Amino acid sequence: NTYEELRLLALCCEFEVWGATPVDRAAQSCRSLLTRHDGDRQVTLPAMATLGLLCGLSGELERGRAITSSARKIARDLRMDRADAVLAMHVGLVELHAGDPAAAEECFADGAARLRESGDDLPADGLTLLAIRARVEQASWQHARATLTELENRPGGMSPASRLVWLQLRARVDAHYGDFEAAEVMAQEAVDQASRSDDLLGLADAWSDLAEVLISAGKLSDGKRFLDRAAECYTAKGAAVLSQRVLSRIARMPDARNTAE
What we know:
The chain is an all-alpha fold. The protein is built from 13 helices and no strands. Helix 3 runs parallel beside helix 5, helix 5 (81-97) runs antiparallel to helix 6 (101-117) and helix 7 packs parallel to helix 9. The chain is globular, with a radius of gyration of 19 Å.
């Protein structure tokens, strides 16, 4: 069953993004599949979109943009409406990694709205949380807090993966508004949950969010320590653009002792 084989291979390529497989090896898996089965665009589309995301993570941002945009065009040409909405995640993540959170937010919000309209609430939650992440990066705190509250109160609840990201983002927002104790508890809970997975990107994000919460609370040395851990995870994954961003954040920090000591 060649169709089913291709479909599963394409999914394996996508799963490699979120596990411990280094970015360069995951990208090679995508290229190998696309080279061998270039003619079947519908089945290999996930591998193509994943390759674009991996290029963005490695620092090849323009290449990542080109590939994810091409993947989304193919989905539209083939009238794969759900795939087109889901691919908003890939396009938006490359924009987020490229330092354009406004463009990323637009992609995430569009994909989430279309999935929500079709009753696909769980993936819509994931894209909504990514849109909130983009708002946090733009310091759009009120909008971020309102949407987090909407998600928390939505009937049916969130998936465990979405709940984990919700904790991280709620912690960031609460820390901004000065509720440091609650924020630190949530951020630490997110780290504890992320540590049970082999998702290096997710763990690095959790360390980074905990660090920002602590920095907001004036605990600079603790914050730097956890930023170091985030950078180590991003580096182990091969996500050069994210590790460099964290290292730049560390370099901008004042050389101060933990004010909570």
